[in-house]
Write a structure and sequence with these properties.
The protein has 137 residues and is α/β, with parallel strands linked by helices. It has a single domain (2-134), classed as Nitrogenase molybdenum iron protein domain (Rossmann fold). The chain has helices spanning 17-23, 42-48, 62-73, 77-80, 83-86, 95-98, 106-117; strands spanning 2-6, 11-12, 38-39, 53-55, 90-93, 132-134. The model has no long low-confidence stretch (mean pLDDT 95).
Length: 137
């Protein structure tokens, strides 16, 4: 799994997000708990070839994330060859509310990730409307 904090250029999500992924039952493919968010290349993304990608640009809500991702990545052929894109496992989340700053809402962020990573096991968890959605490329 890969969480992307910025789209152009790509930044991997760092700080507390890798730990959120672990708590939700995922394995973060590039960054580790406590590491700073950092710029990464498409080569790194291709090498990791994650099964799930969560787009969480810092400060964006779900709608803006979807719009920005579509605009920037729609015609990127390298992006379209990634396993997560081919399997429709790319999601936009409301990063501004649940991921960009630590707060009590971080728990909701973990629940959102759990629903993305293990949808059957966590189907009974209720998350806020528009807190995440699947992206199509």
């Amino acid at each position: 799994m890969l969480c992307i904090e910025w789209i152009d250029p790509f930044f991997t999500s760092g700080h507390w997000v890798p730990q959120m992924i672990e708590i939700a039952g995922g394995v973060n493919s590039i960054s580790a708990t406590g590491e700073h968010s950092r710029r990464m290349t498409i080569d790194e993304v291709e090498k990791a070839d994650p099964d799930i990608i969560v787009m969480m640009p810092c400060g964006f809500d779900t709608k803006r994330t979807e719009s920005e991702c579509t605009e920037v990545l729609q015609n990127n052929q390298r992006w379209k060859k990634l396993r997560a894109i081919e399997n429709s496992q790319v999601f936009a989340v409301d990063a501004n509310s649940y991921f960009s700053k630590p707060s009590i809402r971080t728990i909701t962020g973990i629940e959102i990730l759990a629903k993305i990573i293990h949808p059957q096991e966590f189907s009974d968890i209720k998350t806020p409307e528009n807190s995440f959605r699947r992206l199509k490329f």
